[in-house]
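ok here's Histidinol-phosphatase:
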Amino acid sequence: MHDHLDDDLRFAHVLADSADAVNMDRFKGLDLAVRSRPDLTAVTDGENAVEKLVRGQLRRSRPRDAVLGAGDGLEGDGPRCWVVDAITGLENYVRGVPVWATQISLLEVSPGGYRPIVGVVSAPALARRWWAAKDHGAFTGRSLSSASRLRVSGVSHLTDASFAYSTVTAWEEDGRLNNFLDLSRDVWRTRAYGEFWSYMMLAEGAIDSCADPRLSPGDMAANAVIVTEAGGTFTGFDGTPHPLSGGAVASNGLLHNELLEYLRRRD
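and the structure:
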């Protein structure tokens, strides 16, 4: 791995450590303050604090890089951009369910748009963390020095495969409910694990495919580099390997074309 990517990956872990400390301090707090965004999704004071903390660290240590976050949007410009999702799975977080994570990724300009080159997904309430850097592989563990390499499964037929997603409502709102139901009937098993955990289990080889029609860049960028570095395939619904297209289709690679056929059908 190039030295600069090694430094960036280590720094991403430092950012994730800071985020974990704040998020865990607020998780299940009796005085957790919750308000509503205009789209009626919940946001906590802890989420805002995490994003401000990470942005401050980036300004000091990576002043030339842009930063994109849900709270304050895009700050700066340039060929590299850090994407911060302070709490993926916010609905779980505010209800005391431990399936949530902070996602931190680094993107760089490439032909066709930005591509993720570093990604860290940290789920401290599950005591789990996953990470990857381009051309270096994907890993999970407690730290960089104590990690296991990730590898996707070898299942080659959808009828033998497991499929994961976030919510049925998203498929209905996107006009793809029939696609989702057709696929669900034909695969071996379906489960709703959520915006990040599905992709991490795919990278681990525990499940074989997953998709979501509506995701933000913060939900996708870290997932994309971790899945692909584990040997999988991550695309938009049009098959383009672009992690910021608004929807994600991911698989172990062997199932991808067949999976896309199901999801791209229109009545």
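+1. Confidence is low (pLDDT under 50) at residues 38-42.
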